[in-house]
Amino acid sequence: HNKAKLFYLSGLIHGKYHKREVHNLARFISVMKFRPLSFGTTHPYVLADRFEDITPPEKVQMDKKCDRNVTIYGYLRGCNLKKGTKVHVAGVGDYGLAGITSLADPCPLPSAAKKKGLRDKEKLFYAPMSGVGDLLYDKDAVYININDHFVQFSNGADENGGTASKGKSQDVG
Known about the structure:
GO cellular component, one term: nucleus
Helix content: 10-25%
InterPro entries: AARP2CN (IPR012948), Bms1/Tsr1 (IPR039761)
Order of helices and strands: EEHHEHEEEEEEE
Number of domains: 2
Radius of gyration: 24 Å
GO molecular function: GTP binding; GTPase activity; U3 snoRNA binding
GO biological process, one term: endonucleolytic cleavage of tricistronic rRNA transcript (SSU-rRNA, 5.8S rRNA, LSU-rRNA)
Protein name: AARP2CN domain-containing protein
Strand order of the largest sheet: 1-2
Low-confidence stretches: 167-173
Number of strands: 10
């Protein structure tokens, strides 16, 4: 396409792209002006960023091929979706919606005022399941990385039944 813009990403270092290159790409995307598409404005579509299987585990244990209940999270574009609307999931088939709920945007757009750059507060990043940030998803667990200066550790018991503490202790009274 003659108006396509190419971005050069020089490669991965320790499984991640260069910070400056990703920053430049994100900055360009955040200020883009999109042309409205006639199909897109008259038909709803969802950009899904994650899904959860909420089928009761007992039902799955009894029948591995049972019908599943799935919750899909993402961004709705175009017109609105309604409960009961038939949706097409690519590669899977057509299904009816049991319900739809609106959630707050985890990464809202910056204010409309013209600026040369973005403050740190406005540099929000939302990438579920990516391993970037403080959440790490494993096959069967979610790990949260918390900096030590945000955590208060409790005192542990020593061999004599007293409490052992880190740092200096003072005798009082």
